[in-house]
Amino acid sequence: MGKFMKPGKVVLVLAGRYSGRKAVIVKNIDDGTSDRPYSHALVAGIDRYPRKVTAAMGKKKIAKRSKIKSFVKVYNYNHLMPTSTRLSSHSESCVLGFQVLCGYPLGQDCCQQGCVQGPSFEAQGQAGGQGQV
């Protein structure tokens, strides 16, 4: 059987706090490590999706409702469901080490400081097409 969990693959998170959310595999470990002896992947995804906007809303309200909140987390392959979609413009400059996510505050800081920030997902979403997350 071939390896299909590769960086850039869009997956659905099945378990935990972010269950039901779409995510993209940033880095995958098929053989496991000493501290995680199972196949797992570092994923970056969308925690809060943009809400519906109407023509009657003002610019501030539209801007507020269009924001996207992102998350970064390590998941076991059993808790990810791959889709047929691949992210076309997967950025290799955003590859994180797993040591960044060992402490919860570090992972949160990384998410907020723009390594995997909402605007990158917003730009990809506004572009539309096959690469849409």
UniProtKB/TrEMBL annotation:
Q: Which organism is it from?
A: Mus spicilegus (Mound-building mouse)
**Keywords, comma-separated and alphabetical:** Ribonucleoprotein, Ribosomal protein
The record, for SUPFAM superfamilies, names:
Translation proteins SH3-like domain (SSF50104)
Instruction: List the Gene3D superfamilies hit by this protein, alphabetically.
Output: 2.30.30.770
Where's the KOW domain?
4-31
Q: What is this protein called?
A: Large ribosomal subunit protein eL27
Question: What GO cellular-component annotations does this UniProt entry give?
Answer: ribonucleoprotein complex; ribosome; rough endoplasmic reticulum
Q: Give the similarity note.
A: Belongs to the eukaryotic ribosomal protein eL27 family.
